[in-house]
Protein: Membrane protein
Amino acid sequence: MLTGALLILAPLFLGFALSLSNRRAMTVIHHTVEVLVYFILALLGLGLGQMEGLVDQLANMAGQVGLLVMTLLAANMLGLWLCHRWDPMPIDEPTEAGPAGYRRLFLAGLKPLMAVVAGLLAGFFLLPALPMVDQVATGALMLLLFLIGLQLRNAGLSLRRLLVNRFGLGMALAVTASSLVAGLLLMPVLDLPWHDVLALVSGFGWYSLSGIVVGDALGPAWGGVAFLNDVLREIIALAVIPVIIRSRPAMAIGYGGATAMDFTLPVIKNSGGLACVPVAIASGFLLSFLSPVLMGVFLALGG
Structure:
């Protein structure tokens, strides 16, 4: 029962326990993580492409993804609105961001999707069933989580300082609690055990991890659902952040989930000002840490 959780949590915590001061090594780790992410996402697509009844599965996945995205959007925004009402966050004057910057971010957001599609097409049209694909994917996932743990530990962030940032902590807790409530509401319609549904809603926008972890535990179809759900969260966040951050900063920053500390951070900074940066980093870091922990624990409950 605990094997699944340990499989995810052990390398993550091992990496987080190690401290590195060599900047060149951290650069190598950064590029290795990027390569591993695309490699494992391509394997996820490969598994999708070689499923029986792929067309019917894709139609079913579209409905499941739409339901997940809309339910989580409503639940997270309500939770973050309550967070904003409880403790409003002041923000500075924003800096201007050109349309080219947003266009570049949107295009970058398509890259992981392209990796999955490339794997899907290769699996469907070109490649025969390959031996040991699951073992290779699991080994790559373990290495990825170890390196991600190293990155989190050596990002120059103090966990204590992040935890005392009350705005970031409040947003992270609001997203976590509202996502789990949304998962409980989705249980009757997703036809999965409660712990698997809660694992699905615990990605918090970290698509490169949720798709891999869920796919490894529940199969490529549910891995694809988890991946698309979190990719769409990031795309929606990029669209809504500039619109609502001035009036509802908690909703704008918090909905970005784990991406608030990296991918959506430039939009948050340009739209909301410098005061939003430490809050976004705190919220994104805490959700990045909670995501694999919650997914590992919930998936482990399934045996």
Notes: The CA atoms of residues 90 and 268 lie 14 Å apart. The radius of gyration is 19 Å. The mean pLDDT is 83.
